[in-house]
Write a structure and sequence with these properties.
Layout lengths: L8 E4 L9 H14 L6 H6 L5 H12 L5 H19 L7 H10 L3 E6 L3 H8 L10 E4 L11 H9 L7 E5 L2 H10 L2 E4 L8 H6 L2 E2 L6 H4 L5
Parallel strand pairs: 1-2, 1-4, 2-3, 4-5, 5-6
Helix pairs in contact: 1-4
Length: 222
């Protein structure tokens, strides 16, 4: 297992790591599918996390056949979820503000590597005064291949002018863990809706319970 020495930067996924949005994605993917007459299981909904259309469309076709209009269902999900968030907002995950403050105080560079568009990240994080806490933000819209490909973490590390091995990546999903691991980051999983299976646990350098547990990992680097 890799050690945590030499870490200079921390790269965060957003959904399910910093904001409690994964439950909303799951809920509204299932409700949008139902509106089109399709029964999306919880397991199928969870497998859509961090997927771009290039990876999600084949899944929809396998589940529901060629008649399933992924783009229309996705647009319905976005509309329903946006209406909910406009009224209710998105809660932070426990410890999100605390760990970002710790990293800044102790001189670590901080990046956000999210499949979400930057505008959505701002919409979720700005009300909590966290959007401006990142030295760089890399969106899935800016990269050629989405998670589980390593591209987004490679780009985030480059934007921080650090090697991936000098970066600690924080993820909640198997797809994200694969991405960060393959990029060469020290990979931390903090499970949200899905506990790590055997393969994912092997890829993660650490599996933690809480965001603030990262402080202990970085104590010798601060």
């Amino acid at each position: 297992m890799n050690t945590c020495s030499g870490i200079k930067g921390v790269i965060f996924d957003m959904d399910g790591v910093l904001v409690d949005s994964e439950r909303l994605y799951l809920r509204f993917w299932r409700e949008a599918c139902a509106a089109f007459g399709f029964d999306l299981s919880e397991e199928q909904g969870l497998s859509l996390r961090s997927n771009s259309p290039e990876t999600a469309i084949p899944k929809f076709r396998a589940w529901f056949g060629e008649k399933a209009d992924y783009a229309a269902i996705r647009d319905k999900r976005r509309q329903m979820m946006a209406q909910y968030i406009d009224t209710n907002g998105v809660a932070l995950k426990d410890g999100a503000a605390e760990i970002l403050a710790f990293l800044k105080t102790n001189g670590f560079q901080v990046a956000l590597a999210t499949a979400s568009p930057v505008r959505r990240a701002e919409h979720y994080l700005a009300p909590h005064d966290l959007f401006d806490k990142f030295d760089t933000i890399v969106s899935g819209a800016e990269i050629a291949h989405s998670k589980p490909a390593p591209d987004i973490y490679l780009q985030a590390a480059a934007a921080l002018a650090l090697s991936p091995s000098a970066c600690l990546a924080v993820e909640d999903s198997p797809t994200g863990v694969q991405s960060a691991h393959d990029a060469g980051c020290f990979t931390v999983m903090i499970p949200d809706l899905t506990p790590p299976d055997t393969a994912t646990a092997r890829l993660a350098d650490r599996v933690l319970e809480h965001l603030t547990d990262i402080k202990m990992l970085l104590a010798d680097n601060a």
